[in-house]
């Protein structure tokens, strides 16, 4: 296998594979066979250069990439090869567990994903779902960039100094409210008063802006500190903690043991490394500089999750990389030359003028020019969808198998138009998109029942959307009745839920409208008595009591059969607690079922009734 691999490598891949020791940089564009090169290099190190497998550490950024790399290594060397292939986070987690006492961490800690952080902040601080998501994202990025809470506090102090020019700290809130009132009533003053208060108005506006920013940072710091305390009591760490605690451990206790364990380091997707991860790499190579990093220069200009744009240049400087220590894989095994040239011209615009020469132009492995890239402009989404379907029909006429045709789109809305256009022409389609699945009417209706049940004890404005969805499912409530309900809530300044429960007789709905509202309320009442059931069992009750299943049974079309499958899958996903299934139909933030189930926050109404939804 190894001999066959080496025979099929390009000259540049072979240079990378046969590199013996010291620091090395592989610049690899998309589709240039970087994983083949990395795994070939590992196999060559073991079989040809005599490096012990257990001395090699390969780090990457995703579990999928790690599994793929591991699988290819086994294919070359056989099962049982003791090469350590891991994500950064998994490697750090293992290091912390092995040294938990020195790290001051319980060995049995669990790991929070970013969405878990958002849920915890939402529950413990009662903030909005949007702020919870924003805070969790900011905390993660701050940790990746090694920015501590104390640095945010220092910045907050500078904001406070600006506010002290207007009022004493004890009067900030009071003065802020006074400024708000003054501005809101400014139009009531006559022109002479407005002119006299012109400078004062600017002062009010400036203070409001400064105080809003001050409160924003103060609220964030409070959320972060509360989160850290709560997380500690739960014996949890987040991804940012893993890198930082591992780095702190190595700074405190040294790297001798780690350097004894691993003598050859390989880092994939190096352009995505953040500050803390780069520091870890330095520790891993403190004794021997046998490190190979693989990076896509075209992606290094983006600061994803704290990755900094010049880390490739930093690596060159830190490890003394010379021209002979760099190999650029410029042969694409994926795309034709014409596609590569168009992509190169497009991507080069992302580089500053003094770096445009760094944008690597790839060439096809067989020098296949391919067909011209066609850019088709259409006036709207509907015409775009029709054009795509016409092109697919041409492919079908030319005997191109359907399984070889894929449509990529940027937004869910585009995907819906394209799918509908394909279905109208009876072209079978498989949609790889859970978010679009969640927008199917039967799924949105069922999730609305769950949302209302969870929302009964603590009504929120977003709960209104779920009620409307139930009233209008299958056009049950007439638009005229909807208008009456809406006008009543606005005119009387009452919540939607209060209006339909306590003032329905005052709204003057039609007879059918009253029946529709009462029917939905009765269904909710019966379901609320079953709220202690597991979520999957509660879903089955909703299917039955809502009449959705009976309605679909009366119809026998392709669409209703798909609806049945959707309902079945929804129940199965809850039972399995699938980690990446996202309820985004009516939530401001993306929250996974696994996370919701973990916290018991979804429908755990037997307690306070006030949950994170």
TrEMBL record:
Pfam families: UvrD-helicase, UvrD_C
EC number: 5.6.2.4
PROSITE patterns: UVRD_HELICASE_ATP_BIND, UVRD_HELICASE_CTER
UniProt-recorded Gene Ontology molecular function terms: 3'-5' DNA helicase activity; ATP binding; ATP hydrolysis activity; DNA binding
Keyword Nucleotidyltransferase: no
Residue numbers binding ATP: 28-35
One BP annotation, GO: recombinational repair
Gene3D superfamilies tied to this protein: 1.10.10.160, P-loop containing nucleotide triphosphate hydrolases (3.40.50.300), PCRA, domain 4 (1.10.486.10)
Annotated ranges, domain UvrD-like helicase ATP-binding: 7-336
Residue ranges of domain UvrD-like helicase C-terminal in the record: 337-597
Leader peptide range in chain numbering: none
Keywords: ATP-binding, DNA-binding, Helicase, Hydrolase, Isomerase, Nucleotide-binding
Catalytic activity: ATP + H2O = ADP + phosphate + H(+); Couples ATP hydrolysis with the unwinding of duplex DNA by translocating in the 3'-5' direction
Family recorded in the similarity comment: Belongs to the helicase family. UvrD subfamily.
Official protein name in the record: DNA 3'-5' helicase
